[in-house]
Amino acid sequence: MKVVIPGGTGQVGTLLKRDLAAAGHDVVVLTRRPVREGEVSWDGRTLGSWAEEIDGSDVVINLAGRSVSCRYTPENLQSMMDSRVESTRVVGEAIAGAARPPRVWLQMSTATVYAHRFDAANDEASGVIGGGEAGVPGYWGYSVKIAKEWERAQERAGTPRTRKVALRAAMVMSPDRGGVFDVLLWMARLGLGGPVAGGAQYVSWIHYRDFVRAVEFLIARDDVEGPVNVAAPEPLPQREFVRALRGAWGVPVGLPATAWMAEFGALAIRSDTELLLKSRRVVPGRLLDAGFAFDYVRWQEAADDLVRRVRRGGERRNVRQILLQQLGLPVR
Ligand SMILES: NC(=O)c1ccc[n+]([C@@H]2O[C@H](COP(=O)([O-])OP(=O)(O)OC[C@H]3O[C@@H](n4cnc5c(N)ncnc54)[C@H](OP(=O)(O)O)[C@@H]3O)[C@@H](O)[C@H]2O)c1
Question: Where is the NAD-dependent epimerase/dehydratase domain (predicted)?
Fold first, then answer.
């Protein structure tokens, strides 16, 4: 197959590209700064010669969007919105204008579209879409709005010959440097892997092997379209999540943090507490119904496996180096 991955230079794109290329597929990545073989230039907003890559391709997987690991200032939120909606719109235009459109368009979305919720899990059929929750910071609603507009941009695209799937993905956990798991692991190693604000908020996650397998499954399954939750079947409260992570690495303690302390820490690493405090309780109803079998259902097993892979990969950075790197300071 020829697979085109707009925004495929980041964490998720690297995982997919690695696997799809190893399986013998022809993978083309659309990026604003092409440097490697197989990368083609685009701006994420306007049609250009890059659209020729989509014409005649089999699969498009659009991952483009400004990173969400940043302070949620009005400017950053706007840029998170624009980069997602604009890139999705223009990918839709390229598919609509293709003489030989791809048979499937997988569009990244996010599990964040669901409400901050503790009482029950959100599947695609009965889940509660967020934005109207009481007692949460107003700007959390904006992340939900981004997710909704992102999905709407795909829905609106007039691409009748292409099956459309929106991937409502949870945090993809991989052993790679700079990914979500890397950040969580270094926090745990610094002794900061304790419950945050009580730790009752749910964490939804997916092991990267299952993520890649789920994407391949959705490419193959012609009968699945629309939103699909791409998350392991067992999300768990944050305090249990970090306990399992500490157990996997062998860190005896994790300092509990109040919401205030989390705010301070997030400020230090230029991230946002919404990523830590929002309860994301999301389950993969449609994937399970379609017969997808997860290799990693329980977080403890996934965390043990990821730690093993990190250790095998020669994790030689010490705690000081990791801290300096996360603070954006020179590591000598
Ligand atoms: N990682 C996760 O666990 C996770 C979970 C759920 C959803 N997601 C979503 O999945 C997507 C991919 O995730 P990721 O972790 O791989 O993200 P990432 O590492 O931040 O990569 C996203 C890519 O988007 C491109 N991009 C950034 N700003 C852009 C802009 N203004 N216009 C066009 N392209 C832009 C960048 O490519 P170039 O700089 O090369 O152009 C970048 O490599 C993101 O949209 C993310 O929100 C991720």
Answer: 3-230
